[in-house]
Amino acid sequence: MSDLEIADRYTAFWNASTDEDQQRLAALTFVDGVEYHAPIGVLTGARAMIGFRQEFTSHVPTARLVARRVPERHHDRMRFQWEIVVGDEESFATGTDVLELDGDGRISSVTSFLDRAPEGFEATHH
């Protein structure tokens, strides 16, 4: 699987509009027991990531994740720089995710960094 295909699946997972689509994309994108490390905490498993997205979009319903640049690969790691846009493409936040990949290109771990936090986000929240 190419780096762009991996990044496209990852983006599609975060932007899926239904629980069913997210579950289908999770099975293609992540290994069982994927770990997600972010300022909000550590989540284990795609179900927890789906729950996080549902909670987030309940507060920011028009949020959409977009890539800021082409992903960069280093052995079994990929740097994915993203932006969350809302409404008419207004920037909400930017960040960088480091994706750990298995031999088939599925994601086993995500470490998410905020490059520019949303307005009002408490840096010590976690």
Q: Mind explaining what this structure looks like?
A:
With about 130 residues, this protein is α+β, with helices and mostly antiparallel strands. Helices cover about 30% and strands about 40% of the residues. It has helices at about 5-15, 20-30, 45-60, and strands at about 30-40, 40-45, 65, 70-75, 75-85, 90-100, 105-115. Strands 1, 2, 3, 4, 5, 6 and 7 form a seven-stranded mixed β-sheet that branches. Helix 2 (about 20-30) packs across helix 3 (about 45-60). It is globular and about 40 Å long.
Query: How many β-strand stretches?
Result: 7
Shape assignment: globular
Helix content: 25-40%
Q: Would you identify the regions where 5 or more consecutive residues have pLDDT less than 50?
A: none
Q: Order of helices and strands, N to C?
A: HHEEHEEEEE
Quote the distance from N terminus to C terminus: 34 Å
Question: Tally the helices: what do you get?
Answer: 3
Mean pLDDT, rounded to whole units? 94
Measured by DSSP, the beta-strand proportion falls in 35-45%
Rg measurement, Å: 14 Å
Which secondary-structure class do the elements indicate? alpha+beta
The biggest beta sheet reads: 7 strands, mixed
* Oligomeric state of the chains in view: single chain
